[in-house]
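Run Cyclopropane-fatty-acyl-phospholipid synthase family protein through structure prediction, thanks.
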Amino acid sequence: MTSTLNRTDAQITIGEAITRLMPAGVPFRFTAYDGSTAGPADSPIHLHLNNERGLSYLLTAPGDLGMARAYVSGDLTLDGVHPGDPYEAMLLLQRESGFKIPPPAEAFAIVRGLGWSHLKPPPPPPQEALPKWRRLLEGFRHSKGRDAEAIHHHYDVSNRFYEVVLGPSMTYTCAVFPTEDASLEDAQFAKYDLVCRKLGLQPGMRLLDIGSGWGGMVRHAAKHYGAEVVGVTLSREQAAWAQDAIKRDGLDEVAEVRFGDYRDVRDTGFDAVSSIGLTEHIGIRNYPSYFAFMQDKLVPGGRLLNHCITRPDNSVTDTGAFIDRYVFPDGELTGSGRIITEIQNLGLEVRHEENLREHYALTLKGWCENLEANWDECVREVGEGTAKVWGLYMAGSRLSFERNEIQLHQVLAVKPDRDGNARFPLRPTWLG
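Sure, done. The structure for Cyclopropane-fatty-acyl-phospholipid synthase family protein is below.
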């Protein structure tokens, strides 16, 4: 390793610091603005630290948040993979990285050797949401105002950006792949069709779809099952796009997507309620009121289907620093057991549940492929920093689903009548 800096005995190069933090070996090529290096020269993955601001990001927010700040800002560059799909680099880092948090004395020596001036935090990139304590100015966690701001941060990026990344279905939730080589569009159709069949939809039935996004479920249920559907989303841009799509499909007499909070829906008497990808946003302490809301909307014998990301266990956890600041502010996850418990505690009867985590890994793979293939247009639409956030987030999430660090569960429940009649078939009609 070499360095262009004038050194004292206490000084160390950035490459030396990386090597000390990875005593088992650096699995990638690392170079830095001070001229130092680490890791094998022939590695297909090359990280380069461009400047002092990047070093300050790494030192003041160790872990994924600091790495994300430096990468999104362009202070840390990654060669060997496309920024729209950095999956292979993340796979290498997770499999072979021997990073260890050093003892306090060692950490002190590393920071001293790199320079105390780097402990002054630079301003975060503009794509980053406020820290949790600052969000209190928008209301308590999962208040209507704060939820609206969190949804705006993530979903009101650009409808055109989503059209390119998600594809024609405009569906930003886990697809269901009938075969591993099925197209993303066919898999999204299969997901909506599976939900409709689980809910037992028939012509003339009334469906409430909460957290309806761009209206994919709303339009599918109305078009293919003859249902009368009301959808609701907290994203103004999603609602406007969905209403235009409903009109284009000639479904405006039987379907609508409203802009607003699901808690403000006053309609009742629905035969079915679907919630696809909303539970992650509502807060675990709000589960009882969330599922009670669905229960109150259903007629006796009505069904609800909840589709959401979960943890492999039933602990209550936040989504992590990077996801919280850049992707889903205020997001919380727990296991399917906790979800089923809350549903059952209300007197609803759970009839079926399944884990689709492999399907979400394939879905994310498809979205990354779309982002990579349309990178220049996406950058023109939202800027390079935001496009990098999405590549990082989707590739990392794909890896987490593959490694069983997160899961995707569908839970189907029914509201029995006062005599216990669930009006449910003896065997599931959606299988086979």
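DSSP finds 18 helices and 13 strands in the chain.
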